[in-house]
Design brief:
With about 60 residues, the protein is mostly beta strands. It has one domain. Helices cover about 5% and strands about 30% of the residues. The protein contains 1 helix and 5 strands. It has a 3-stranded antiparallel sheet with strand order 3-4-5, with no helix packed on it. It is globular. It binds zinc ion (ZN). The site of zinc ion has 7 residues, from loops. The site of zinc ion (ZN) has 7 residues, from loops.
Length: about 60
Amino acid sequence: MAFDPFTGVEVAAGSPADRPRAAVLGLEPPRYCAECGRRMVVQVVPDGWTARCSRHGQLESAAGP
Ligand SMILES: [Zn+2]
């Protein structure tokens, strides 16, 4: 079982999630860990965002050059 990173709702593997467009585009940081559904600590940084799960560590937005 996985969790939608934007809503925290359990989703079946492979099912398309109903997400805000900004989230799909990567502009919106995920708020929940996709692996455990915990709420993550999100920080917006100048070039994107970071999100930290207490169990699974930190995610970062794709940092393009
Ligand atoms: Zn996690």
